[in-house]
Amino acid sequence: MASINIRCIPDNSYAIIGVVNNKRARFEIETKKNEENAEATKRNPINLVLVLDRSGSMASNNKLEFAKKAVISVLDLLHDDDVVHLVAYDDSVWNVFENACASTRQVLYSVVNGIKTGGSTFLSGGIEAGAKLFEKYVHPGYSKRMFVLSDGLANVGLQTKDEIMKAVTKYNENGIIIDSFGVGEDFDEAMMKGIAEAGRGQFFFLESAEVIVTLITKALQSVFDVCGTKAQLIIRGRNDAIVTKIWGHENIALGANLGDLHADNLRAILCDFTASATVPDGTEVEVLDYQLKYNRPDDVEGEPLIVSGQLSLTFVNDESFIQEIHPKVKILHTVQVAGEMDDRIAQLIDSNKRDDAIALITEQINLLRQVEHLDDERGMIAITTKRFITRPQITWIIFQFKKRYNSTTSSTKLTSSYFHHVSSLPFVYKTLSQSFDETAAKYPDHECYIFKSEQKRYTFKSLKDEVDSLAASLMELGFEKGDRFAVWLPNTSENVAMSFAASKLGLIKVNINPAYVGRELEYCINKVGCKGLLLSPTVKIIESLSIFRRLVPELDQHSISRELSSKLLPTLKHVILTGKQSSISGLHSYNNLIEHGKKLSHTELNERQASINPDSPVAIYYTSGTTGQPKAATLTNFGILNLVHAQWEHLGPYFTRLCVPIPFFHIFAEVVGVLNTAVAKCQIIVPAILPDTVSTMKAIHEEKCTALIGAPIIFRDILTHPDKKKYNLSSLAYSALGASPMHYDFLRQLENEIPVTRVAQGYGMTENAALLTSGMWAGDEDRKRRLGSLGRCMQRLEIKVADREGNAVPIGQQGEIWARGYPIMIGYYGDPEKTKEALTSSGWLRTGDQATMDEDGYLYFVGRQKEMIIRGGINIYPIEIENTIIEHPSVAEAQVFSIPDERHGEEVCAWIKLKPDASSCQIEDIKKFLADKLAFFKIPKYIRFVDKFIMTPTGKVQKFKLSESMVNELKEAKK
């Protein structure tokens, strides 16, 4: 069937006379098919047990579906006379079918397809049940093989990893070769590779559906092409030589257990030994005997075949003879040394000895670079650290390595408050949709969005198909590049689809708070001249469709066959409704547009997408100014995409399963959360259409989220929720807080009590695409800085703390935060004067917020713009509320301000002076009046009628004193 040869290559063929020489040898076992008899040779039939993990963890990322496809691929590739068994397990074990001939595969397909996920996992029990099937069904002359398909997670049954490995080793000693298949990106690599190693089999990584057939073919081909089994290399010393180590094999007496030998393959084993002799110069001495023992696959229990050999060294006096080391021995030794470091590195990581782990990984990288011919240190870091990626602590270690080639710390400390984050990270000159399409092409079957309350799970392919259909229908309706399209929706799948469809067509998505009512909605649409609107019939208690119909009474007489004509909303031409088809003839149905778009040719759509300039605007997010009127901050494809890309480079290992409970109309949700799929293979989990604490905890528990982002209110509500202990939140490796700065003690409480491995806050605003700084640039050795500062600016951005003239102030001195770089808005749409106030001629954004900077570029928040209130992460400007309050016929004057609130961060308060004849006016009258004019979160929680306001001698109201007075009054009321 095949020829099997062995050769021994010493590190050097010489040894020095009269001393003990530490020597090393490489043994190469080469197998080659006998081509003359290849066609006539019939392979041995196989007795194959498939062990399939169907536990709850296999439900995520299509893991069970991948594994079932692998089982079906096995059935397809087996010969008809092969025997196959299938064991499936969760917390119990189920023999799905036993002792089936592969010829019955058509019947077996439906059985496999019917397997569903269950509860927790009993990996050791599944393997044990598989081993018992070999005892139950003995097929003489058949090769015994087991395939274990699992993510290797959360074994129960009181068996540790070491105990499982011992059991697998025992099964292997009984003649069972066990191959393992790691399923899904988050599989336990140590467990699955350990099973293959203990079972003397091979390990395969089933990352996606595309690789299944190739890997299964490779696995079975290796089984079919076995030309020797139970192979063992025994090495003995001669003439006072002593074998001191066989690398990778602990028992020198037993030698190296090699398992199966495959045709057309080369195996290498490294051996250390000592040799000594006192002989004449130039004498050749035999120092090693070696034997390769193996059985033919069709005679596993018979007498083994033996291939023998000896190694001789020439003993000399001249030490120059031994200077040159054979390169093959050097390479194998280097790889073996680096490989043996893995267990030590893993132990250091798990023990939280991170500095020691970094030192050992550095040593490992330096070793590998000697033989891998890789000059790119980043590549070596990626190769090395990927082996430990399932361990939460490795992410911090990766960050430390990145600092070596993407340093954010200058050896020279700053003396003025200006910091530029220099980075080698290249810019991406694409649109959001182009980048998303590329990611979707790489990972079509990977789940990218999970909308829990909608019970929708999207793969990259299914979302791309929906986006393309939507874009094709919008293009047919006449939407052109640069048209504004309003989205008045909560956190729904349609909202996400519209983000990418807008980018694909060159539209500008206008994000509108779903809690806005008539007047606010009217302003947002007219301010930027929206041509389209996407809305939901209702959003919780808000009757969105009813509000819209009051604005556009013409809707009832309109037909979707022509453009809308509205008196109050003159630019609006098309309105799309999510959910079930409305009886109103003037509304397009979102679902109908998707179905219609599937039938349209996408040739013109693809041409349109290719013509979109990455520098073109893609989104408008409303913010407010001191006038109280919302301003339309306009951001580009290039700015948003590159900020998301920089964020992924910075935080990607944490964001593999990211929970996003915050409203999508808020730029923090989209840029830091929703749009990560444009650059990477990840999952975005959306707990509910509106923020809800129980839904968020449930989503983290069920989907094993690795990160959670949100405003402080989200985290406060989790901490104080009475049902918190019902949910397992331990999967969270990172939590990012934004929208309003928080105190160090609160962030420390989050890490300790939720718990979360790492918490950090950042700083940003709508005008700079939400993410200007990140506290995660500070490592765990600098926890005080990570939790106590706003962090340092993102890659390739500039930031300074400036005086009134724009000059950087000295380190530690207070000033205004200014920022410059690629994500900064191009301006406020339709507001050149406001744009000029915010952006300098040299591109600096004036934030209006006060801070200090330390000598390493970290920002420390001092205070926000004078009057802005941040309630639950949402910016509220008092003047808008004041102007609305004074519209009430009983009100003379009003002052709106904030007071601290444990849950929302800040709460809205109003002091009101009534007109002389308005004594009958009640607080509830004011709140009822505001309910039809303002979003619920803008309506003051606390209202007080007063005769006068606290003022300075010059007549200016001192709002901070109003706040102090209100706080004291509320404290007294609680007594």
UniProtKB/TrEMBL annotation:
One of its GO terms (molecular function) is medium-chain fatty acid-CoA ligase activity. GO terms for biological process: fatty acid metabolic process. SUPFAM superfamilies: Acetyl-CoA synthetase-like, vWA-like. Residues 47-223 form the VWFA domain. This is Medium-chain acyl-CoA ligase ACSF2, mitochondrial. Its EC number is 6.2.1.2. It is an enzyme of class 6 (ligase). Acyl-CoA synthases catalyze the initial reaction in fatty acid metabolism, by forming a thioester with CoA. Has some preference toward medium-chain substrates. Plays a role in adipocyte differentiation. Belongs to the ATP-dependent AMP-binding enzyme family. InterPro entries: AMP-bd_C (IPR025110), AMP-bd_C_sf (IPR045851), AMP-binding_CS (IPR020845), AMP-dep_synth/lig_dom (IPR000873), ANL_N_sf (IPR042099), VWF_A (IPR002035), vWFA_dom_sf (IPR036465). It comes from the Eukaryota. Keywords: Ligase. It catalyses: a medium-chain fatty acid + ATP + CoA = a medium-chain fatty acyl-CoA + AMP + diphosphate; octanoate + ATP + CoA = octanoyl-CoA + AMP + diphosphate. PANTHER family: ACYL-COA SYNTHETASE, MEDIUM-CHAIN ACYL-COA LIGASE ACSF2, MITOCHONDRIAL.
